[in-house]
């Protein structure tokens, strides 16, 4: 009978002590992303949120959303910079919630990695917590899973889920949109978190650029441009709904501007959008020129510089623009709602 060495979890590649140290390192950041309704702290089996806050609602509707960051994480991993990717995650989740008028209340996160490096996990969670602060929601819990053999030691992926609440009679969407409404664009901070498979293919594979390449059009390196965090609009949108009339929002993510705006249009109306009202940032034009990507392909893959759209009555447009300007969100009249068949149509050419 041969002696077989005893097996351990650590020998299989899972380091529980590293996980515990990661939790200790992230506590400070999680503590900053809280709300008065949150009970308990990090380390419990479930996050607790005091639902008695809903008593002030006549008919509270809970909204929920879940998302990830896609292949943008590959840029963070190659640059060994992990403290902004969490803001992208929050933006992808909470700005889907606010589209229906819901106030984001809390989020949970999930990080899967090949090897738990406590400082790296803490940096990711730091970004998530900072994003939650920008969104006005709490980070009430999360999970870090070590998957040796499934992921390489330096690989990880992130996902999150969020919950919000909206009064039933204030629910926004297609049923509120009317012919003659004005479409207002809110500027994106950059690529946000969509289309990175195309962007990486163009710059890194086709062109052979490196992430430390200085790009004159960006005024910084390629990597810095690609890691620019997603703009988080939730507090801006909520302020807009409090201070003026809003019929609908559209979060511009995968599928581009037209496809996402069409999701909040009734079947008998169109949105006519004027390209001449804005000039997309340099990163969008460079993806097109360097990769020989057709405009139609760019527009159905990237946000083209518009991260969120509001549909408002014509007589509320000036007030909406003023609110957004006050909040530091670049915005402009993008188009109008007309009779149609439920499509968003881009017309004309971009301003040069």
Automatic annotation (TrEMBL):
<dbReference type="GO" id="GO:0004641">
    <property type="term" value="F:phosphoribosylformylglycinamidine cyclo-ligase activity"/>
</dbReference>
<dbReference type="GO" id="GO:0005829">
    <property type="term" value="C:cytosol"/>
</dbReference>
<keyword id="KW-0067">ATP-binding</keyword>
<dbReference type="Pfam" id="PF00586">
    <property type="entry name" value="AIRS"/>
</dbReference>
<feature type="domain" description="PurM-like C-terminal">
    <location>
        <begin position="178"/>
        <end position="344"/>
    </location>
</feature>
<dbReference type="GO" id="GO:0005524">
    <property type="term" value="F:ATP binding"/>
</dbReference>
<keyword id="KW-0547">Nucleotide-binding</keyword>
<dbReference type="InterPro" id="IPR036921">
    <property type="entry name" value="PurM-like_N_sf"/>
</dbReference>
<dbReference type="GO" id="GO:0004637">
    <property type="term" value="F:phosphoribosylamine-glycine ligase activity"/>
</dbReference>
<keyword id="KW-0436">Ligase</keyword>
<protein>
    <recommendedName>
        <fullName>Phosphoribosylformylglycinamidine cyclo-ligase</fullName>
        <ecNumber>6.3.3.1</ecNumber>
    </recommendedName>
</protein>
<comment type="pathway">
    <text>Purine metabolism; IMP biosynthesis via de novo pathway; 5-amino-1-(5-phospho-D-ribosyl)imidazole from N(2)-formyl-N(1)-(5-phospho-D-ribosyl)glycinamide: step 2/2.</text>
</comment>
<dbReference type="InterPro" id="IPR016188">
    <property type="entry name" value="PurM-like_N"/>
</dbReference>
<dbReference type="InterPro" id="IPR010918">
    <property type="entry name" value="PurM-like_C_dom"/>
</dbReference>
<keyword id="KW-0963">Cytoplasm</keyword>
<comment type="similarity">
    <text>Belongs to the AIR synthase family.</text>
</comment>
<dbReference type="InterPro" id="IPR036676">
    <property type="entry name" value="PurM-like_C_sf"/>
</dbReference>
<dbReference type="InterPro" id="IPR004733">
    <property type="entry name" value="PurM_cligase"/>
</dbReference>
<dbReference type="GO" id="GO:0046084">
    <property type="term" value="P:adenine biosynthetic process"/>
</dbReference>
<feature type="domain" description="PurM-like N-terminal">
    <location>
        <begin position="59"/>
        <end position="166"/>
    </location>
</feature>
<dbReference type="Pfam" id="PF02769">
    <property type="entry name" value="AIRS_C"/>
</dbReference>
<keyword id="KW-0658">Purine biosynthesis</keyword>
<dbReference type="GO" id="GO:0006189">
    <property type="term" value="P:'de novo' IMP biosynthetic process"/>
</dbReference>
